[in-house]
Write a structure and sequence with these properties.
Elements (H helix, E strand, L loop, with lengths): L1 E14 L2 E6 L2 E7 L6 H13 L3 E2 L5 E3 L1 H4 L2 E6 L21 H18 L4 E2 L7 E15 H4 L2
Parallel strand pairs: 3-6, 6-7
Antiparallel strand pairs: 1-2, 1-3, 1-8, 4-5
Helix pairs in contact: 1-3
Amino acid sequence: MRVLLQVVTDASVTIDKERVAHIDKGFLLFVGFTHGDDLPLAKKMMEKVCKLRVLPDENGKTNKSLADVGGSILCVSQFTLYASARQGNRPDFIQCMDKNEAKELYEETFAYLKTLMPTSESGVFHADMDVGLTNNGPFTLILDSKELFA
């Protein structure tokens, strides 16, 4: 499982000119799954995200979590996090989880995230979304379950 995390001052998802999700300060997560990923792993990843101390404290040090600052999470499915451009110029998606499996896992993952961070919002799985954000910092992390929990 991979998560691209961006610290934002605001973020939103729009589909067909209709805003379907919006947060103010917090994290914008792009979430992708690969073969073998499952809900226990996804839960560990969401717990890690919620506990990350990457927001500035009163001294400007990255020392606070989302809960410490009253932030929110906007979660967006992003299968291309497992795309590979290793050969040629057109990416392949061989490592991406099947969309039906990924949809179920994404929905279960987001439901769990809502138990950890009730103010969380979600994009729409497999929709053509316009994602808007104001990256704060900028501060962006790539979290890979194979690196975090190997």
